[in-house]
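Need the bound structure for adenosine-5'-diphosphate, inputs here:
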Amino acid sequence: MKKAIYPGSFDPITNGHLDIIERTSKIFDHVTVAVAINNKKNKFLFSDIKRKKFIEQSIKHLKNVDVKLFDGLLINFVIAEKSNIIIRGLRVLSDFEYEFRMALMNRNMNEAITTLFMMPHENYTHVSSSIIKEIATLNGKIDNYVPKEILNEIIECINDIKSS
Ligand code: ADP
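Answer from helper R.:
Posting the output first, comments after.
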């Protein structure tokens, strides 16, 4: 069984992330979306539990995808999951340098692990979790950018955070 791991912050999941998950699920037997756990250094807006739940609510139509939290070195998680494939998304050229360095570093640490890059549909190349959070905080419409299953909950969470 060929398994792929798609790691990230997913703070929150966007339609761009979902596009990559759907593409990956058509190529691999199984996909695990790996959500980075909150730690002191990472200032995520949503808790890891919430970020995981948002993804689970968005992937119900995909039978060969699951979601797990991970902490520590990604390559250790990939090996523990009995995979050797890391999926990352590339939107624009500015993503490239960081992703290139990360992929080479992971391969240096473990030669057996390969990073594959995927491009989302062009409708999503400008979409990022941070822009969505900014728009929603300013009461802008985010309907086209986040999965419909979680739209209202994201808006409610952001309103709660704003008023707290
Ligand atoms: P990280 O903090 O690990 O970059 P993100 O949640 O921001 O976590 O992104 C996870 C992966 O998804 C990265 O490879 C990123 O480039 C990719 N990604 C983010 N947004 C999009 C999008 N709109 N389309 C395709 N890939 C995306």
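Comments: The chain has six helices and five strands. Residues 135 and 141 are 7 Å apart (CA to CA).
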